[in-house]
Design a protein that fits this description.
PX_dom_sf, 45% helix, SH3 domain, six-stranded antiparallel sheet
């Protein structure tokens, strides 16, 4: 049965089975049941094909109501998480789905649902990361773990009151509500008796920033290998992942990366988690696709290890270090039962004592919002131009140089038709000139994999990072609105000043976190774009030097005539 939907994000097709969709475009989905995370449908231009289920929301009409309920269409489920607030703001792309790669099975080989993590914790002495001592890989000093703590109410509101008097947002589907930040700001988040997990924000000369990891590390992703199981029925690609601080490789499939990505979205409310490389409905075992996915997974991993907060996450350490199947299942279940997610993550933040005027913070965030929008537009423009240039390298440039080479070859052949007046040396030089230009055409066709592909990979990473910020900024805007509303109610005598001060204090926490994330984005942006531009220019110089060498060798053939 066909249903109407709206595109949440822009998607560019990469093969003939897929269709491109634009943000906010109206779509028709032929079958509401997605296949491996893809819908088949029709865009507003009448094109029919596949597009990612996570990029759209199905428009449903509630029964017995005149209200239209737009909800993200799930291609899968995250499972039964014990979080008080079940989603995060930058989850609009993937949060309510656990995308399974098209080569994924039902997790039966690595995810035993009968495992009880708490029992294991009570029967074995825990190691440094909460795993049993038999795991030799739990030695990351950057991460602090805890046993499951008892939950209790520690609101700033007296126990006789049911919650803040400040009104709740009517739109319960907004990221401000779904993330739990509204409840956090209003003091309605159940707090922990003991919070062992902690992330610090320092005040730097340019503003708040995340405290750097005491032992930074990197991680390589290499050797994508095609593997089979169940006597060849299941086929998948395995990657060798080696963190620098252990030097011990583990082997991961795309679905493992996808599991980690969804845990990150679920936990870190105000952090822009980079998107994973996109799925592809067809051709997933082709060499070019495997190489492209590997390059983009490397960039994704580099961003992860460079982030002072994401790199300290327990689930990330588990992903990087656990090589034992049984311990993997235990750690996976522990990460999925993590209670310090979404709004509770805000309780783990240690903010500076320095005073910040909320109006100044709001102006700074507005400036960043304008910058992010302009950068997003510019990244999209450069992506379009670079993609067009790739197509010209692979098609137009090669064909034009081949045509020129063939024309020179034709001249040489014509000169050979009158032997008494032809010069074999001269004819050979002209013929060689034709072959040189044909070779140059092939060089143009090969060049994008050395420069433009890498540029497009980096731009894709930043498109994902920038796409997260509108929702994250919306959290701070919602918090500002609650502060203003609470102060107005306090001035009118409808709220205790202590409660209004509590809302303001919690809004400061949200503001410090967002500013720290903005600062980290700027730092990484300068490093990444410097590397991107230098690498591109070096490859361009080397390419044209090779072209010049070819032409100079050909030119010298005429000097002997």
């Amino acid at each position: 049965m066909s249903v109407k939907a709206k595109a949440l994000y822009t998607f560019q097709s990469e093969n003939k089975e897929e269709i491109s969709i634009q943000e906010n475009e109206e779509l028709v989905i032929f079958d509401e049941n997605s296949v491996d995370g893809w819908f088949q449908g029709e865009n507003s231009r009448g094109e029919r094909g596949l597009f990612p289920a996570s990029y759209v929301e199905i428009i449903r009409t509630r029964s017995n109501s005149n209200v239209t309920d737009c909800s993200i269409s799930p291609a899968g489920s995250l499972g039964n998480d014990s979080s008080y607030f079940p989603s995060t703001p930058n989850s609009s792309l993937h949060m309510q789905q656990s995308f399974y790669d098209d080569d994924d099975d039902d997790w039966d080989d690595w995810d035993d649902r009968s495992t009880v993590v708490e029992d294991a914790d009570h029967t074995r002495s825990p190691g440094a990361n909460g795993h049993a001592h038999q795991s030799p890989l739990s030695n990351n000093p950057n991460v602090y773990y805890r046993s499951k703590p008892h939950m209790e109410r520690q609101d700033s509101i007296s126990s006789s009151r049911k919650g803040s008097m400040v009104g709740r947002n009517l739109n319960r589907f907004s990221s401000f509500v779904r993330s739990g930040v509204e409840a956090f700001v209003l003091g309605d988040v159940p707090m922990m008796a003991k919070i062992a997990e902690s992330y610090t924000i320092d005040m730097a000369p340019l503003g708040p920033q995340w405290k750097e990891s005491p032992q930074p590390f990197s991680c390589s992703i290499e050797d994508p290998t095609k593997q089979t199981k169940f006597k060849g029925i299941k086929t998948y690609i395995s990657y060798r992942v080696t963190p620098s601080h252990t030097g011990r490789p583990v082997y991961r499939r795309y679905k493992h990366f996808d599991w980690l990505y969804n845990r990150l979205l679920h936990k870190f409310t105000v952090i822009s988690v980079p998107h994973l490389p996109e799925k592809q409905a067809t051709g997933r075992f082709e060499e070019d696709f495997i190489e492209k996915r590997k390059r983009r997974l490397i960039l994704w991993m580099n961003h992860m290890t460079s982030h002072p907060v994401l790199s300290q996450y327990e689930g990330f350490e588990h992903f990087l270090m656990c090589a034992d199947d049984k311990q993997w299942k235990l750690g996976k279940r522990r990460a999925e039962k993590d209670e310090m997610v979404g709004a509770h993550f805000m309780l783990t933040l240690q903010i500076p004592n320095e005073h910040q005027d909320l109006q100044d913070v709001e102006e700074r965030i507005d400036t960043f919002k304008a910058f992010a929008k302009k950068m997003d537009d510019s990244v999209m423009q450069l992506t379009h131009v670079a993609s067009e240039l790739v197509r010209k390298h692979l098609g137009g440039f090669r064909k034009e140089f081949q045509r020129l080479g063939n024309a020179f070859q034709s001249i040489s052949q014509a000169f050979m038709l009158d032997p008494p007046h032809s010069s074999e040396t001269f004819n050979n030089a002209i013929s060689h000139t034709g072959r040189t230009y044909e070779n140059i055409g092939e060089m143009f066709a090969e060049q994008p994999k050395y420069d433009l592909f890498h540029m497009l990979d980096k731009l894709s990473l930043y498109q994902g990072l920038l796409a997260n910020f509108p929702d994250i900024i919306h959290l701070q805007k919602g918090a500002f609105a609650k502060v203003k509303e609470s102060q107005r109610m306090s001035d009118e005598g409808k709220m205790d000043q202590d409660e209004a001060d509590g809302i303001r204090k919690r809004c400061r926490t949200v503001g410090f976190a967002l500013q720290a994330e903005m600062s980290h984005f700027h730092q990484r942006r300068e490093v990444d774009f410097k590397d991107m531009m230098q690498a591109y220019l070096r490859e361009q110089i080397a390419f044209y030097q090779r072209v010049v060498q070819q032409l100079e060798r050909t030119l010298r053939m005429y000097d002997c005539l």
